[in-house]
């Protein structure tokens, strides 16, 4: 495996590799905001959390790593995120499957989560590029990705079939290794302020 499956810790959050024991806490987190109702997002319904976690554990066998996000201020699991499409040979991965309870929004949680994930890939694993993908119409997600400092690479039209049968246009963003120092400074500045 290229990326080590280990916890990552910052000032505000701890990222813990996902496990079946996290299902109940994730059900509570996803109920805070009911984001599974958003047609353009891929957020699990509480009743589907067991399958969601089991699928994440299966994907770990291919080198993908899913984490629960623990808000250290409350010691409560507030969401999840993961590395996926991990490509050891080309030293790149995507970051996604990220969702949070409403209680974590407008807090340092997402900023520090992304800082930890990016720092781990660029500084510990010498990544060349990191990708972020989201529904073209998910403006909240696109704004958050752009705020991190990622650049839009393009839009994959009719890229995925959504659970409701509609076709998803996928906005693809990336951060490349040469951009990482500026992106890191930006994220650290946001956390300090």
Output the radius of gyration: 16 Å
What is the CATH superfamily label?
A: Gcn5-related N-acetyltransferase (GNAT)
Strand content is 25-35%
CATH architecture, by name, is 3-Layer(aba) Sandwich
Shape: globular
Q: Find the count of extended strands (DSSP E, 2+ residues).
A: 8
> Mind telling me the CATH class?
Alpha Beta
Low-confidence stretches: none
Q: Mean pLDDT, rounded to whole units?
A: 96
Taken together, the total number of domains comes to: 1
* CATH topology (fold) name: Aminopeptidase
Percent range of helical residues:
25-40%
Give the H and E element order: EEHHEEEHEHEEH
Structure write-up:
The chain is of the alpha+beta class. It has one domain: Gcn5-related N-acetyltransferase (GNAT) (Aminopeptidase, 3-Layer(aba) Sandwich), CATH 3.40.630. Helices cover 31% and strands 33% of the residues. The chain is built from 5 helices and 8 strands; from the N terminus they run E-E-H-H-E-E-E-H-E-H-E-E-H. It has helices at residues 23-31, 49-60, 109-124, 139-148, 180-192; strands at residues 8-9, 13-17, 65-71, 76-87, 92-100, 129-135, 151-161, 167-176. The protein has an 8-stranded mixed beta sheet with strand order 1-2-3-4-5-6-8-7, sandwiched between helices. Helix 3 (109-124) runs antiparallel to helix 5. The longest helix has 16 residues, at 109-124. The mean pLDDT is 96.
């Amino acid at each position: 495996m290229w990326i080590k499956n280990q916890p990552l810790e910052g000032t505000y959050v701890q990222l813990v590799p996902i496990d079946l024991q996290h299902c109940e806490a994730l059900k509570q987190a996803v109920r805070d905001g009911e984001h599974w109702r958003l047609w353009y997002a891929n957020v699990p319904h509480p009743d589907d959390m067991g399958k969601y976690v089991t699928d994440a554990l299966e994907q770990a066998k291919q080198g993908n790593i899913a984490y629960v996000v623990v808000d250290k201020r409350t010691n409560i699991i507030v969401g999840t995120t993961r590395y996926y499409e991990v490509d050891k040979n080309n030293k790149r991965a995507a970051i996604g499957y990220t969702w949070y309870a409403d209680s974590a929004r407008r807090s340092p949680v997402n900023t520090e989560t992304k800082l930890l994930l990016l720092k781990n890939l660029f500084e510990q694993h010498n990544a060349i590029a990191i990708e972020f993908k989201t529904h073209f119409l998910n403006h909240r997600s696109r704004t958050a990705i752009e705020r991190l400092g990622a650049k839009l690479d393009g839009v994959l039209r009719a890229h995925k079939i959504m659970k409701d049968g509609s076709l998803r246009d996928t906005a693809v963003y990336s951060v490349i290794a040469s951009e990482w120092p500026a992106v890191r400074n930006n994220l650290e500045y946001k956390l300090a302020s």
